[in-house]
Amino acid sequence: MSRNILRYTSGSYILLLSILSCLALLYACSTPKPTKVTDHALATVEIDETVYFPTPSGDDVAVLPGAYEIKTERYGIRLIAEEGTETESMLIEAKATNHGALIPRPMALMLSNKKASRVITLLRPNSERWDAWGTTRSDEPARAAQRFHILNTEVLQHLDTRKQARAIIPQFSLASVSVRYKDSKKSHKGKKLKTTWRLPVNDTLNSGSFTFTWRGYWEKSALQPSFIPSKVVDLQNLVKKKQCCITLTINGEEAPLTRLSFGKRGTLLTRVHLDNVRVQTWPKTVKVIVTKGKKTWESAPTKIYAKAISYYKSVLHPIFSHDRCTTCHALGTHDEIVDMHQYRIGIEKFPYEFDPEARPQNPTFCQTCHNASNLGNEWVSPLAEQNIDWKGMDAIHVCRKVTGPFTNKGGEVGPPLNREQFTYYFHKDPRTLWAVSDGLTPSGKDLRVPLSNKLSLWFRKVDPWVEAGTPCPSTSKFFHRQRETLTEKFFPRK
Ligand code: HEC
Ligand code: HEC
Q1: Does 8 map to a domain?
Q2: What whole-number distance in Å separates Cα of residue 398 and Cα of residue 402?
Q3: Which of 100, 199, 202, 361 could form a disulfide with 190 if both were Cys (CB 3.0 to 4.6 A apart)?
Q4: Counting atoms of ligand 1 from 1, which one is nearest the CA of 319?
Q5: Which atom of ligand 1 is nearest to the CA of 360?
C-alpha cells in the first residue's frame, strides 16, 4: 500500500500520512494499555531480571521480571503481563524471519549471550520467527544492545529440553504459597499462573515467614488422587518426628524449616523464615524433596515471581498525608501563613497582615509564639518555591516528591536527600517529631496527631523504608518507561 501512495500521491499527502501514522504509533506504544486476551494459544516467555527493550515509538521500556504472553503485531511483539488475565501490555520492537520447522503451537523463550544482551525469540506454527533484542543495562539505549543471533536448530533444541523437563510428573506440586511479615496479622497469598506463580511481596521489608503447601498428584483420568501426602505412612512418620529428610530449597539452597505439618486436603505444609526477600530479589525457585531410605518424593522446581506491595503506600502515606504534616507544608507564602492563623485564632491575636516578617523560613518571627523548648528555633514552614505542599496528592506523587530532587530554601534544586538526611528529618527534626507525636500549639491546644507519644513506633515504621532506599509505589508492576523526566514535578512552580 505504501508503494501505491508513493506512486499516486503528492508529497504533502505522504507527509500528512506519515505524521498521522507516527502519532498513532506513539499513542499505541507510549503507555501500557489494558488488554483482554481471548486467544489461548499464545506462547509465554519467562523474564527473570529487568530487561530494557526499544519500542517502535523510539523510546525504551523496562520490562520487570515476570511471565508474559506474546502476540505478534505489525511493528513488533506485544508482551502481555500476567499470562493473559486482563491487565497490561506493551509493544516492543522485533524482527521477523523464518524457522522452517513444524511446531504445533507458538513457543517462546528468552536467551542471553552471557553479557548484557538478551533476546526474546518467538516461533510460530506458520514458520515465522520473531526476535526482540534488549539489554539488562539501564545506562545505555536499549537499541544499542548487541543483536547476537541464535540458529533455528539451537532454539528448537532449547525448547525441546524444556518440554522434556516439563513432561516429568513430579510427586509434589505447589498448592499454595503465602507470606506474612512481622508485626502484621495479614498474610499475602500467591496466585498460580500457567507454569509459574506470582506472590505479593513487600518492597521494603526484607524478611518474612513463607508458607508453601504441597499437594500430591492425580494420575491422568484417575477418579481420586494417586498420592495424598497425609495418607502416606512414611510421610506421617517423618512429619511427626520433624526430623531430617524433608528438605525445602530456595534457588537450590536448603532453607531450614520453621514448621512442618499436614495442611488442608492432606497437603504437606512447609514454612521457612527468609531474609533478603525484597521485591527486587525475585523470582525465586522453590522445590521440596523428601527422602526415606531409597524412596524419594519431590516437586518440580517451581518459579515464583513477585508483585510489589508498596510499604510507603500502606504504612507511611497515612502519616505523611496527615493534617499535621500538610498544614505546615501548605504555608508557603505570607498570605497563607496569615490566613491560616487569622482563621484559627482571630485577627486580634495575629495582627501581622502587613508585617513582611510573617513569611516562611523565618524562625525568629515564628518563635515569638512557637517557642516550646522541644522545637528549638526550627519552627518554620517551607517556601512555596520548595514545592513540597502535597496536600491532597496520592501516595505515588507524595512519595516521588519526597524522594525526588530537593529544593532548598534558596530555591536551588539539588539531588534528593540522602540516607543521613532522611534519618535526620525523621529522627531529629523537631517539626517532624512535633507533627508525629506531639501536636501541642502555642495556645495550649493539643492537636490530633498520628502516633501520639509513640515516637519509637514512628522510628520502627520509617526506618526500614529509609534502609530500603525509600522505594515508591509505581503505576505499573510490569513496565516502566525509561528516562522519565521526573524533575519537572519538583521544580518550583512558575
Ligand atoms: C512546622 C512546619 C512543618 C511540619 C509540621 C512538618 N514539616 Fe516537613 N518540612 C518543613 C520545612 C520547612 C521543610 C523544608 C526544610 C528545608 O528547607 O531544609 C520540610 C521538609 C520536609 C521533607 C523533605 C522534603 C524533600 O523534598 O525531601 C520531608 C520528607 C518532610 N518535611 C516530611 C514531613 C512529615 C512526614 C511531616 C509530618 C509528620 C512534616 N514534614 C511536618 C516544615 C514542616
Ligand atoms: C502570634 C503567635 C504566633 C506566631 C507569630 C506564629 N504562630 Fe503559628 N500558631 C499560633 C497558634 C496559637 C496556633 C494554634 C492554632 C490552633 O489552635 O489551631 C498556631 C498554629 C500553627 C500551625 C498549625 C499547626 C497544625 O498542624 O494545625 C502552623 C503550621 C504554624 N502555626 C506555623 C507558623 C509559622 C511557620 C510561623 C512563622 C511564620 C508561625 N506559625 C507564627 C500562633 C502563632
Answers
A1: yes
A2: 6
A3: 199
A4: 38
A5: 12
C-alpha 91/C-alpha 74 separation (Å) is 10
The structure's pTM equals 0.86
**Which range marks the domain in which residue 268 is found?**
173-308
352 & 450 share domain: yes
Q: pLDDT digits over 324-373, tens only?
A: 999 999 999 999 999 999 999 999 999 999 999 999 999 999 999 999 98
Ligand 2 midpoint to CA 381 (Å): 10
pLDDT above 90 as % of the chain: 72
Q: By 3-state DSSP, what share of the chain in percent is helix, strand and coil, each rounded to 5?
A: 30, 30, 40
Residue 29 has pLDDT above 50, yes or no: no
Among 325, 379, 389, 403, the mutation site with the greatest number of ligand 1 atoms within 8 A of its Cβ is 325
Q: 118, 147, 167: which is the final residue of a domain?
A: 167
Nearest-CA residue for ligand 2 atom 16 is 344
Claim to verify: residue 211 and residue 115 sit in the same structural domain: no
| Whether residue 359 sits in one domain with residue 467 | yes
Give the list of residues 6+ apart from residue 252 with CB closer than 8 angstroms, or none. Answer: 285
42 and 127 Cβ atoms separated by less than 8 Å: no
Number of C-alpha atoms within 13 angstroms, CB side, residue 241?
10
Task: For a ligand 1 pocket test, name from 328, 417, 434, 463 the mutation site with the most ligand atoms within 8 angstroms of its C-beta.
Answer: 328
* Residue 453 belongs to a domain: yes
C-alpha grid cell, residue 117: 544482551
Let me know: does 25 contact 56? Beta carbons within 8 Å: yes
CA dist., res. 434 & res. 439, Å (int): 6
Q: What is the pLDDT of residues 119-171, one digit of tens each?
A: 999 999 999 999 999 999 988 899 888 899 899 999 999 999 999 988 888 89
Q: Which ligand is nearest to the CA of 450?
A: 1
DSSP code per residue over 12-60: HHHHHHHHHHHHHHHHHHHS-EEE-------EEEEE-S-EEEE-TTS-E
